[in-house]
Write a structure and sequence with these properties.
By secondary structure, this protein is an all-alpha fold. The chain has one helix and no strands. The mean pLDDT is about 85.
Amino acid sequence: MELPARGCLVARVRGSYDQISQAHDLINARMAAESLRPRSGDDLAARAFNV
């Protein structure tokens, strides 16, 4: 499946999984600081992922 190009914010966690919440908080803070909005909709391009 191919998705259209889009800008993304990425937080890389090195260490234990319990840092994931802090990574999400940092992404949310950056989005707020730059007046960004998450993409809406039910399609795959609107989803957030933890890998």
